[in-house]
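Supplementary Methods, section 5.1.

A reviewer requested that the exact input to the structure prediction be made available. We therefore reproduce it here, unchanged from the version used in the analyses.
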Amino acid sequence: MKKILAVFFAFLFISTTANADTMQYLNIAFWDKFNDTTLTDNLMKVYQNNHDLKAAVLKVSASNRVVKMSFANELPHFTFDGYVGQIFSSSEQVFGQVRIPNYHESHFLLPIEMNYELDIWGQNHLRTKSKKKEFAMMQQDERAAYIYLTSAFAADYYNLIRVDKLIELQNELISTQEKVIKSFKIRYNAGTATVSDIETAEKNLTYMKEDLQKLKERQDLLKNQLAVLISDRQFEDIKRTSYDNLNIDFAVPESIKYETLDQRPDRIKSVLNMEKLAIDVKVARRDLLPKFVITGNLGFNLYSLHSPHTFLADIGVVPVWDIFTGGRKWQMLKLKKDTYDIAIQEYEKTILTSIQETNDALYSMKTADSIKNISYDRLNSDKKELKRCELREDAGTTDELDLLFREQKLITSDMQMVSATVNKIITAINLYQALGGVDFTKTENI
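The structure derived from this sequence is encoded token-by-token as follows.
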């Protein structure tokens, strides 16, 4: 009785856990550090509408129902298997000196049957524990889906912001190139430029326009991808902040504690899988032992609704033991052991993969930070160079064409700075994903 009560309360706990708020998987506290309310608003839409996330929640719910069904096998089963019929005898029957003429009569069999397998070896309880492990593994799959989809949305979101800014700068570059062509034409009329100079400038303009079209195509593709993640059937324009309003610059951690990787969903799932398979081995081993089933009937067996002495009751214990099954159960036990050994190897591989992915993400973030600093220095250098050129133009020691070339160089450096800045943000998102949704900015993780 104590064992049944313990399983029952554990079952109630699982039901409560299955309905727990999944907002913790969204980890909104981490995304708030991006200082972008538009991003967090969009992530809430992903949380509420994304079909993959809804499917992940339903899979967890389905797994919880499997646990409930397994728990039901630990309880007694009551069934009603009644019979109501009319019996006819078409001829006389003779038993020695006794002659029974033809007759007909009613028969009512109204029993409630009970079957309860005595879980002497704890086999049924172990099966329920195994299903609980599967349920916990499904919860980790759900958590992984939240981490992956929110990270994918954030990465595409900042890529779209980058493309918006690059389109703006590319238009400036095209406008400057058109001024370059006009300046060459003025020089040509003055005899200080050639037709080749003009044609080369016009060809460069076509390259710039091609790049602009590619950027616009990339912009449309990113909008479509984000609309799918939000589950927007109208494919409306995605609300987003502008690049100039970005206010984020994560410090790059020198290293990440290996203990932090234990919180990755795949690491936790691998551990749960080993625990589940260890239980399955115990179940297969105990399946070799005999089973004992309590069976009984309680009801009525009568030929007339008014017949006396019609009460029916019986109870007994039925031993069941598969003495010979052709070695099937032995092979099943060995199969479960082999599966458990495979799970150990998969766990070891998961550890290595988690370290490799985290190191890759961390190195990428460090590289992106270095490139951003280099791009920043180059941008400042080009700004100073443009300023000196403007002073020379005022002094009459250079012309407009030279100034336009300096402006184009500065625009190009600005575009490189935009890409470097957004690349660092995306590498931070990748590191967050590699850590399994752990905030790498907290000191206890670095």
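Residues 113 and 297 are 5 Å apart (CA to CA). These observations are discussed further in the main text.
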